[in-house]
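[audit] Reproducing an earlier prediction to check determinism. Same input, same settings, fresh worker. If the tokens differ from the archived copy the diff job will pick it up downstream; this log only records the rerun itself.
[audit] input (300 residues):
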Amino acid sequence: MNTLRIGIDLGGTKIEVIALGPDGNERLRRRVATPQGDYAGTLNAVAGLVVAVESELGERGTVGVGIPGAESPAGGLIKNANSTCLIGQPLRTDLEALLQRGVRLANDANCFALSEASDGAGRQAEVVFGVILGTGVGGGIVVRGHVLSGANAIAGEWGHNPLPLPGPGDLPLPRCYCGRSGCIETYLSGPALVRDHALHAADNLSPAEIDARAAGGDAACEATLQRYEARLGRALAGIVNVLDPQVIVLGGGLSNLGRLYRNLPASCGPHVFSDIFRTQIVPPAHGDSSGVRGAAWLWD
């Protein structure tokens, strides 16, 4: 095993690379803009970052790549990617040909979960569920230090399950881009929180503004966040009832709402099929760096 681990976070707007030493410490980090809609350009950008890192550090490393999608078990082509130029492409095979070595791919939420399970907020936990609450809602599962991909390469994709126990205040079920209605993502993403507040308060505010105004005593903003916490609590309880993780780590933009860590245990607990709720719900230790770090850890 090489001592240098190189991780790539292949995002829709930027491609970030990190190099980790054998102790997990960061040795170098770079980022470039993602060539929009250009698959060949994206391949060359990723390969160029790897070559630049190895040239600067004077070492050859392993390469792991986190992507906003998944590699199909059927033929190795990319599916479910919001960077649409990747869909249907043999990304791993093409990168291996360019870099002349094996490359490991994983969903970006899986990389986030792996980072936090390896040396972050879920360190030493047997089962970690990593949650992305951002533009979309995703998740990743790590068991004893290993990412679960699943038979269909969708393990952890809780965002496209139905919101549990919808009440009158959750109706009508919002339409999701996936073609169904009432998906967890349509209630718990950042845009969903903004839409919900606008619907009830006729005020277009960002999540951070809603949080700040609620802290200042704004009743409408407080009500919006209470609705959000109740929905998130029910949704996470469904995960706990199936997976029963020791730690749930929240990531994405909404993980910056500090009140979630105080309030979610009370929102989850009543819906968990147990007389006690011990799962820890915590912020990420590595923040926005977790995805790219987790890509590097794919070779651990």
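[audit] rerun output stored. Observation attached for the diff report: The radius of gyration is 20 Å.
[audit] end
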